[in-house]
Specification:
CATH class: Alpha Beta
Shape: globular
Number of domains: 1
Distance between the termini: 9 Å
Keywords: Phosphoprotein, Two-component regulatory system
GO biological process, one term: phosphorelay signal transduction system
Low-confidence stretches: none
Structural class: alpha/beta
Helix content: 40-55%
Largest sheet: 5 strands, parallel
Protein name: Response regulator
Order of helices and strands: EHEHEHEHEH
CATH architecture: 3-Layer(aba) Sandwich
Number of helices: 5
CATH superfamily: Response regulator
CATH topology: Rossmann fold
Length: 120
């Protein structure tokens, strides 16, 4: 089904997301900071990116803005996944260019449905 990049500083959340995506047949790359995620994108282009909002260094919102501003990465779908799940948080995430916003704890079925919809 393609490759996903998961950017999350929580080892537990990273492992849950990775296991869920692998079970759906995806190859998964991971990063623990926004900067590390952006660095990995210079090496390899995933089919989708799942990013947490609260990260050390640059936030998931900043990562999303950066990705959508660059021609090379602007077409990659971005899912923001966060414990910040208010309507205002979702609105702000979508304003940053996110293609979807899934609150934590992750509903794994919703995640896979969303990934399939965005990746095709």
């Amino acid at each position: 089904m393609g490759t996903a990049l998961v950017i999350d500083d929580s080892m537990t959340d990273r492992e849950v997301l990775t296991a869920c995506l692998r079970q759906a047949g995806m190859t998964v790359m991971t990063a623990t900071t926004g900067e590390e995620g952006l660095e990995k994108l210079s090496i390899s282009q995933p089919d989708i990116i799942i990013v947490d909002v609260v990260l050390p260094g640059c936030s998931g919102f900043e990562v999303c803005r950066e990705l959508k501003a660059q021609a090379k990465t602007s077409k990659i779908p971005v899912i923001i996944s966060s414990t910040k799940g208010t309507e205002m948080d979702k609105f702000w995430g979508m304003k940053q260019g996110a293609d979807a916003y899934i609150p934590k704890p992750i509903d794994q079925e919703e995640l896979i449905r969303t990934v399939k919809k965005l990746v095709g």
